[in-house]
Amino acid sequence: MNNDPLLLDNQLCFPLYAAARKVISDYTPYLKPLHLTYTQYIVMMVLWEKDNETVGEIGRRVHLDNGTLTPLIKNLSRNGYVSRNRSEKDERVVVISLTEEGKKLKEKAKDVPEKMSCHFNLNREDAETLYRLLYQLIDGEAEK
Questions:
Q1: Is 57 exposed, middle or buried (CB count within 10 Å of its CB: 0-12, 13-18, 19+)?
Q2: How far apart are CA 64 and CA 61, in angstroms?
Q3: DSSP 8-state code for residue 15
Q4: What is the pLDDT of residues 81-127, one digit of tens each?
Q5: What distance in Å separates the CA atoms of residue 50 and residue 7, rounded to the nearest whole number?
Q6: DSSP annotation string for 46-103
Q7: In total, how many domains does the chain have?
Q8: What is the C-alpha to C-alpha distance for residues 15 and 135, in angstroms, rounded to an integer?
């Protein structure tokens, strides 16, 4: 193996990037009929888990900043899936709530995870290891 630090094959970031692009691409045929992008889908999953969430909390959960999240949420609102309201406690805070259509969308999306599972050529143990390692990387807790 060549130890050149600038070889693409020596970069951890590249297979992570390529894998993320592949996963998002694989989601597209399942999400398109729901009128969702992958990023909108993960925001909806946050809201299906806990409705009436602040933009800040949604951003924290999905690791997106307000500049990215705001137009995404506006599109979800235009599609009729969510509503945006100012908090009664602090009007600087925007609370995102599911509409009836957004709640119904959960039922329509319920098969997406199972359909996606066939796209991963990993046994359960490898999938759990990858999950744990990715969260170590995301959270900055990887062992040095």
A1: middle
A2: 8
A3: H
A4: 999 999 888 888 999 999 999 999 999 999 999 999 888 888 999 99
A5: 44
A6: HHHHSSSEEHHHHHHHHT--HHHHHHHHHHHHHTTSEEEEE-SS-TTSEEEEE-HHHH
A7: 2
A8: 16
Q: Which domain holds residue 57?
A: 21-106
Q: Specify the pLDDT at position 51.
A: 96
Contacts of 108 (CB under 8 A, 6+ apart): 34
pLDDT at res. 144: 44
Please say if the pLDDT value at position 142 is more than 50.
no
What pLDDT score does 15 carry?
94
Residue 41 is part of a domain; what is its CATH number? Answer: 1.10.10.10
Q: At 59, is the pLDDT very low, low, confident or very high (cuts 50, 70, 90)?
A: very high
Residue 93 lies in a domain: yes
What's the one-letter identity of residue 143? E
Separation of alpha carbons 74 and 80, rounded Å: 10
